[in-house]
Amino acid sequence: MAKKYSSKELDAVFHSLANATRRKIIARLCETPCTVSQLAEPFEMSMAAVSKHIKVLEKANLVRKENDGTIHRCHINAEPAISAGAFVKFLENKAE
């Protein structure tokens, strides 16, 4: 298997996307940048729990946070997902 498919970055992307809450956060950010409070609204969990999910997404470089005083706005970064998609495509080609 090619080295590019065994990177720590790719591991972080798949780890972060393995959780339904984080996938929902990513989907919301694909529509528009949001504050942490806005991202927390649809979930029945504490702000601390949502913040932990966001940190996992940040570690995978799927989300970047922009701080303006006390307001933390999150933005999507789709670049790491491209590598994950390439790996899935690689598997699809092997399955044919």
Write structural notes for this entry.
- With 96 residues, this protein is an alpha+beta fold.
- The protein has helices spanning 8-17, 20-31, 36-40, 47-59, 79-95; strands at 34-35, 63-68, 71-76.
- Helix 1 (8-17) packs across helix 5 (79-95) and helix 2 (20-31) packs across helix 4 (47-59).
- The protein is elongated, with a radius of gyration of 15 Å.
> What is the arithmetic mean of pLDDT?
91
Radius of gyration: 15 Å
Spatial strand order of the main sheet: 1-3-2
Sheet with the most strands, sense and barrel status: 3 strands, antiparallel
* Backbone structural class: alpha+beta
Percentage of β-strand residues: 5-15%
Give the full name of the CATH homologous superfamily. Winged helix-like DNA-binding domain superfamily/Winged helix DNA-binding domain
Query: For this structure, what is the CATH class?
Result: Mainly Alpha
Q: Do you know the CATH architecture? A: Orthogonal Bundle
CATH T-level fold name: Arc Repressor Mutant, subunit A
Q: Tell me the span between the first and last alpha carbons.
A: 17 Å
Order of SSEs: HHEHHEEH
> What general outline do the C-alpha atoms trace?
elongated
Structurally, the number of domains stands at 1
* Counted beta strands: 3
Work out the helix count: 5
| Unreliable segments of 5+ consecutive residues | none
